[in-house]
Amino acid sequence: MRVYFHNIWISLATAFEGMSITFSHLFRKPYTVQYPDRIAVRVQDTLPYRYRGILEVDLEICTGCLACERACPIDCIRIDAKKDMQTKEMLLNRFDIDMAKCMYCGLCSEPCPTGSIHHTREFEGSDYSLESLVKRFVKVPVPAYKPKKSGEDDPAILPILERGMRYIDEFADPDDGSGA
Amino acid sequence: MQEYLTTLLGGAEGLALEVGYLLGMLAFGAIVVFGFILPVAGITSWLERRVWARMQSRIGPNRVGPFGFLQWLADGLKNLLKEDVIPTAVDPRLFRIAPYVVVVGFVAAFVAVPFGANLIIADLNIGILYVTAATSLVVVGILIAGWSSNNKWSMLGGIRSATQIVSYEIPAGLGIFPVVLLSGTLSMQGIIEAQGWQPWNWHMFHSPFALAAFLLFFVSALAEGNRTPFDLPEAESELVAGFATEYSGMRMLLFFLAEWGNLYLIGALMATLYMGGWQVPPFTENAVLLGVAQFLSIFLKSCFWVFVAMWIRATLPRVRVDQLMTLCWKYLVPIGLVCVLGTAVTMVVAPEGILGLRFAMFGLVVLVIANFFRRVVFHLRRAKGMGWTIAG
Question: Which domains does chain A have, with CATH numbers?
Answer without folding.
Answer: 45-172 (3.30.70.3270)
